[in-house]
Amino acid sequence: VVTTALALGTTIGTLAVFSALGLWYSRGRITSIEDFITARNSTSGGMTTATLIASGMGAWILLSPAEAGAASGGLPAVIGYALGSAVPLLLFISVGTRVRALIPEGHSLTEYVLVRYGSRMYAYVLLVTMFYMFIFLASEMTGITLALELIAGVPTWQTAALIGTFVLVYTAYGGLVASIFTDTIQVLLILPLLAVGFAGAVVSLGGTDSIHRTVVSTHPQLLDPGYLPGLEFGVYIVFAVMGANLMNQGQWQRVYAASDTPTMRRAFAIAAITVVPMIFLAGLFGVAAAGLGLTEEGNASIAFFLVLNQAFPEWITLLIVLLAVLLVMSTADTMFNALASIVTADLPRLLDDPNERTLARSARALTIVVAIAAVWIGAQGYSVLTLFLTADLLAAATFIPFLYGLYSGGLTETGALVSSVLGLAVGVAFFPILQGVLLAVPGLPAILPAPSFLRSFLGAIVVSGGLTVVASRATSTHFDLDTLQWEICSLDDSAPDREPSAVTDGAGRNTAEERQ
Amino acid sequence: MVSSFLFAVLVWGAVALVLGVFLYEIYVFVYGGTSPLNAI
Questions:
Q1: Mutant choice from B3, B18, B26, B30 vs A, greatest count of A C-beta within 10 A
Q2: Which of chain A's residues have a Cβ under 8 Å away from the Cβ of B38?
Q3: Confidence of residue A499 (pLDDT cuts 50, 70, 90)
Q4: Is B6 at the interface with chain A, CB within 8 A?
Q5: Coil, strand, or helix at residue A258?
Q6: Residues whose CB falls within 8 Å of the CB of residue A9, separated by 6 or more in sequence, listed in order
Q7: What is the per-residue pLDDT for A456?
Q8: Does B30 touch chain A (CB under 8 A)?
Q9: Predicted ipTM of the assembly
Q10: Using the beta-carbon criterion (under 8 Å), do A277 and B4 form an inter-chain contact?
Q11: Which has the closest alpha carbon to A60: A343, A304, A256, A276?
Q12: Whole-structure pTM over 0.95, yes or no?
């Protein structure tokens, strides 16, 4: 058993080392607001791959995949979860290439929406992406506080305050540069720790044959590749994860941070390959927990830690503590900076020509606000799964109209907004979590369909995607996509002003559309 | 039903893949000359 003092000591030591590294590396490297939120074309292939793995793989991989393995359908659910997590990274190979070509001096996904569509779609996408990223951050803080409480009895407020404070210090100072550097070192520790820690855990449980025998004797359906609940989960999790990740500002920042487009493409491809075994191994513990009869009381969400506490030697438990802290640090710093950057990139359009100093101060102040809110929520120990799925549904209904504007000039703001909202309406109608609320509305119970996560996510995507195609073909208007590169420019004071495109009014409005 | 052999292949294959990516990253940093450790 790992004592509270040992777990706290390991946590503080890890936090202190990485905070010092982040501060030291970024010293003198942050010369502009561009460095702080974009770090454009500065990151090598190895570092880009590492930061993509580290920023996406947070403490959640110790919770959700195991829960899926234990309660949602065993091996097929785990395999679906693992493959599904790779899909958005693979899609980013194409989307990132397009983004870099079309908006070479961009910073955030919302500034693209503002210029491409207008203020109503901007407000909607801002809500969706901020909600998703904040839930992601809150779930990370909740995950690590829960993990240390279960492993070593560390009070939740202590873990939340420690992680929030240390990560805040180096992220507020060094921005994206510090985040990418620490992510890289963290991945060089996370990968071997995960492999050795998990391999040691499998051996401690008696090896794969023993685990297989146990599961076959108690829950054989969990090892059945055709187990229907598992297959259903494996399919809908792909759609749930896809939309949310494509609207993750942290990923957009890394599209720009890569040194060039081929480097970016290769990094996303390798990251996609890497996340599959990471999530699969984590999910396996849920199958093992169910097989060992540890999740009978409905506590599947902590299946990983139930197995951990069962029979593991202290050194493996300590490795997992270290792994959990590294996972949460690398994701929390990404989210701190992503949330701050999304607002900072839009400030020049909201304030009256702020100078670079004002923008830098605003970015740091926003980082502090985000950190305080995340620490507070993390200390509460809420179950964030419900909020996570809600955020995923919002993103699933939005990401096709959102991305379509990168490839076609035919879709108008109204078309994109209506497609998203109607897709969301269909998704909500099937959404199990909101059934209770909807059933209380007079007249609705008679027409509400049977709840299903698969139909909810699939419905949201198919309806929003279908309407997007119809809307773009139903109009004769056309937005000149070249406008994006003229309207979205560097935030540096020294950057040369660009001439507005002939087809815009210089304020991001789609005049070409209005003329027609 | 996944056989015991296939289960073992999946588990140890996943462990090997994670280690493989780790070694690849080390290779890229060492031979690419872009190691973040150079900065330390």
A1: B18
A2: none
A3: very low
A4: no
A5: strand
A6: none
A7: 94
A8: no
A9: 0.90
A10: no
A11: A304
A12: no
